[in-house]
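Thread: quick sanity check before group meeting

JM: Hey all, I'm pulling together slides for Thursday and realized we never actually wrote out the predicted structure for the chain we discussed last week. Dropping the sequence here so it's in one place. If anyone has concerns about the input, flag it before I start.
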Amino acid sequence: LDIESGGACLGWEVLALGRPASYLPFVSGSMEQRFRINLAGRPLWHERQILDPAHPRFTGPWAQGGASVQATLWAVGLADEPAAVAALREALPPTPRWAVTCRRGVLLLRYLGGDANEAWGLCEQAWTALRPHLFAMPACPPRIWRT
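JM (edit): ok, ran it. Output follows.
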């Protein structure tokens, strides 16, 4: 994502590995994922991850832990990051499956678990909590989210 100076952005991505509804886990193959956010041409966040179920970082408790679903929500342009984090902690259910951090002007919420619907719901709740902090207007979910 390339954001102009003074711009703001709020988005998320949910990644589900394998076919859990068919009880077919992600056990072979690999994927490389890259994501970058630039602000006024300068990198704010650059991530690269390789997901390979045969590698210890996929199954190790210090990394993916074998989780089949991960989500990342990002927010750039927050005027008051501590207030936004507090709003998330108040709005989201307490669970060890998500965590939030702020670094270099990027708020990141991460989910790691086994349920894509839970990840989507968590990101939608976070989006609803953060939108007023970013755009000074209440959240109004797009109709397409209900189709």
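AS: nice. The chain is about 25% helix and 35% strand. Residues 2-146 form one domain.
JM: adding both to the slides.
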